What does this fold into?
Amino acid sequence: MTSDGEKSGLGKGHPDSRSDDAKLDIEATRERVDDEIQRRLTRKLDIHILPFLFGLWFFAQLDRANIGNANIEGLPEDLKLDGDKFNIALTIFYVPYVIVAIPSNLILTNVGAGRYLPSLAIAWGIIDTCMGSVKSYGGLLACRFFLGLCEGGMIGGMVIYLAMFYRRHQFSLQVTMFFYTSPFSKTVDGLLTTGFSEIEFNGYNRWPWVFFIEGAITIIFGIIAFLYLPSTPATACFLNEEEKRLAIHRMTLDFHHSDDTDNTEDDTFSWHWVRLAILNPNACLCGISNFLIITPTYSYGLFLPTVIKALDYSRVTAQLFTVPPNALGFLTTLSASYYSDRLRLRSPFMLSGLVVTIIGYAMLIAAPVHRPGISYTGTFFVAAGIFSVTPIIMAWLANNLRPHYVRATGNGFQITMANFSAFVGTFAYLKKDA
It folds into this structure.
């Protein structure tokens, strides 16, 4: 009897057990399918959107800094930039650049980021092209001012644009990656300028061709981005209908149910969050740190060709010699960010980058005049250290601020502080001190 009862009990319980197991298998399979769809969507966004945004930011960096390369190709002599006029021309770019971010973002929300951001690129490409035709100091100032006016809305606009497509835990990494383009653009600019500055045609010799060609390339890229970039997931031609619905749905869920400690109340904008962000010790510390770090970064990027030429190298050699240190800066920035994320450590990489930068500037300051090799080696140390620090600081702050509006405001605050540093960095190297 016992044996039959046990068999009978097993006969009754076994189907239920198998049913439960089957339900668990179905749920597990559904989760795997959902995860795969999410990954496929993210991969599509990475492939179709990020290259264009990186390109826009690359050309923004290229077109604002190419005046530093033109400086050793006869620009000051042709425009009679005596005294501190060249430094003033550098500085005036940042006057509209600092103040235009908020009104530019308001325009973006009405026009659509997929059209507005490429339009800015087309506009500053035209201005950059026009800069090759200027015949006076006043014309140079006007071009630099309007160049800053157009570029000022880019970084904030790209952050807003990414937030339309990527979830919160994804797009902070994408934002920091834009800073990797800075040393890369300087590497490419040195190579391009070396070739373009040898062109002599139709009365325009050397430096105008830097602006003509780089501005024209920017315009072409801006037109392509204008025709391709979507403004919202719903208008993305590279997504099918299922992926569009998923992209919209997950952003809606992400807004109301963040995967951190945010709640619905936290997702409602209030000036209370702005006050919390600006008074947050982490945001203040990062803002001050970025101001101090970006100051030498600006001066290094703008004046590196001039510094190298001052070591008694020819102008062509000086342009080519800007490539290796900037290439090293690009590689060390990628490496530092990768290992910082992998090891989940921020401060050791930030501090080591600063130490390396200090060593490089010490070599530039202390090197004897008759030993240009020491000074040039110092530029490698500066590039290897200075470029890697800012992306890590931005990632660190993004990881330590919440809720959403505090994080967004805090990151905007430190970017604003970094931009103010340009007013100091552009006067770090004066003509009378050369």
